[in-house]
Specification:
By secondary structure, this protein is mostly helical. The chain is built from nine helices and no strands.
Length: 201
């Protein structure tokens, strides 16, 4: 078994192997020994670089999420609190999940294993998003009788649920899953229904 002299290459190999193991087995059943074998390293190297399997799991989630988070945070920091910001944010999150199906499986394992650790990046985004929605409500852009925290949760959960349940629901409802426009078509309907609900009446 290799001890890998290049620290960055070692970290990358461990992270790749860990993500693969977590996706297949979940955190509880993905042993450090299995990850070490798949990465071609010793268990001691995993502990040296990450400290524990739980910290490795946190790093796998952070690495998968940080590219989206950086773009979303920049959008929140540089945009006015208005309808356009929420529309762009919804599209960015939907496209992130569309292009990263592994993230859906990671989130599924988080829910199954009652993982309540969302990390600093996720927490900051959520609070920033709620603040922007609240500002929009104060300006009369969005209806004020809806808790901004729940408004944010609705758009996140609509996107997540689509990618989690798409195959099952489309099969049962007779929707062609091989249709190249299926994600676009769903997003257009989701956006229409969501914004008709949050704009002032």
């Amino acid at each position: 078994m290799s001890t890998r002299r290049d620290p960055e290459a070692t970290r990358a190999a461990i992270l790749e192997a860990a993500e693969e193991a977590f996706l297949q087995k979940g955190v509880a059943d993905a042993s450090t020994s299995l990850i070490a074998r798949r990465a071609g390293v010793t268990k001691s190297l995993i502990h040296h670089h990450f400290g524990s399997k739980e910290k490795l799991w946190q790093e796998v989630k952070r690495r998968r999420f940080e590219q989206y988070a950086a773009g979303q945070q920049q959008m929140l920091d540089t945009s006015e609190a208005d309808e356009g910001l929420l529309r762009r944010s919804m599209k960015l999150y939907f496209q992130f999940l569309q292009q990263n199906p592994e993230m859906i499986r990671l989130m599924a394992w988080m829910y199954l294993e009652a993982d309540t650790e969302c990390g600093d990046i996720d927490s900051q985004l959520l609070h920033s998003g709620v603040d922007k929605i609240r500002q929009s409500q104060e300006q009369g852009i969005f209806r004020q009788d809806v808790d901004p925290r729940y408004m944010l949760m609705v758009f996140l959960m609509l996107s997540q649920q689509w990618f989690q349940s798409r195959a099952h629901l489309c099969r049962d409802l007779g929707i062609d899953q091989d249709d190249a426009t299926i994600d676009r078509d769903f997003f257009e309907v989701m956006e229409k229904i969501f914004f008709e609900g949050v704009l002032p009446r």
